[in-house]
Each structure stands twice: as C-alpha cells, then as structure tokens.
Amino acid sequence: MDPKYRDYISLIQAQVPELELLQVEVNNIGWDNLIFIINQEWIFRFPRTEELTQRVEQEQRLLEYLYNRTRMSNIRIPLYQLLKNQDNQVAGCYYRMIPGIPLTPISMRRMNHQTRKNIAKELGIFLKNLHTSNIQILKTYGYRTVHTRQYWENHLQEITEYIVTDIA
Question: What residues form DSSP beta bridges with 95?
Fold first, then answer.
C-alpha cells in the first residue's frame, strides 16, 4: 500500500475496528473523492476538499430520505455511516458496496435491450422520487434551488434540438 494512504487506512481501522482489511483497493480517479474498496464489500469515501467534506452530512440525510421514499422498489441506495477525525469532525463516510458495474457507454452497449430497459425504468423511478421530493424537507437539510424551472425547460429544449440534429 502506498504510504500516502496510511492515514486513511489508520482512520478506517480506528473508526471500524471490527472490519478486517483483507483486501484494500484504492480508486483514485475521481475528482471529488478518494475511494477505498474494502474486501469488495465496503466503500470508504474521503472528499478531497473541505467544501466537499462539509456536504457529506447533507448527502447522508438526503440518501436516508430517498431510501425511505424508494423502499418498495428495487433501487438500492447507500446509507452512509460517518467517519470522524481526531477532532470529531466529519472526514468521510462509508457504506456497503452496491454490486454491479459502472454505467459507461461501453457497458451499456454490451447490455441486451431488456437489461437497458430495466435500468432505464429503475433510473426513472429514482429520478421521479428525487424530483418530486418535498422541497421544504430538503431545505431543512441545507439544499437550495440552484436553477429555476425556466432554466431546465430551456436546457431540455437545447438537448432535444441537439439530439434531433445528431440523429438526423
């Protein structure tokens, strides 16, 4: 293991002492987080900036809210456990890994039509639950409106024109 990751591993061991670190994989490709995959079962996520670290608790509350809204579907939403540093400040989070493969253009092309259709349906259910969430509840979690309805309607129009032009 690269010595630059020792502090992260030490924090994991201190916060979750019952977890035996049999296999540790580092995913260092994301812009926002450094990820440790432990035993192909657990994800440990460490935000790269202070601003992103401050959002972890906000994300935790949102995911719990969405988990409760989608409980009856097949959608699997991670439930964060917070990781705190020596000063009792949030340093990151961990959650049980959701099995599967990343959705990339290549992986999507390799899937059969029915699998893509099932994925689209599940994503639709999730997005419906997200976008029909009670904004007043989300505001109590610290979320705010960034773009107006008009912004999104204009954006949809631009995307539609682009796709139609690209297909034609």
Answer: 43
- Where helices occur in 5-145 by DSSP H, the ranges are 6-15, 50-54, 56-69, 105-110, 113-131, 135-140
pLDDT over 60 (residue 50): yes
**And the tokens for 162?**
């682009």
Q: What is the pLDDT of residue 78?
A: 93
- CA 11, 12, 16, 19 dihedral sign is negative
DSSP 46: E
In the chain, domain spans: 3-96
Residues 60 and 92: their CA atoms lie apart, in Å, by 11
Mean of the per-residue pLDDT values of the chain: 89
**What whole-number distance in Å separates Cα of residue 63 and Cα of residue 59?**
6
Q: What is the CATH number of domain 3-96?
A: 3.30.200.20
CA angle 74, 59, 145 (to 5 degrees): 105
**Cβ-count burial of 12 within 10 angstroms (0-12 exposed, 13-18 middle, 19+ buried)?**
buried
Exposure string (b/e) for 126-159, b if CB count within 10 Å is 16 or more? beebeeeeeeeebeeeeeeeeeeeeeeeeeeeee
Please tell me whether the overall predicted TM-score, pTM, comes out greater than 0.70 for this model: yes
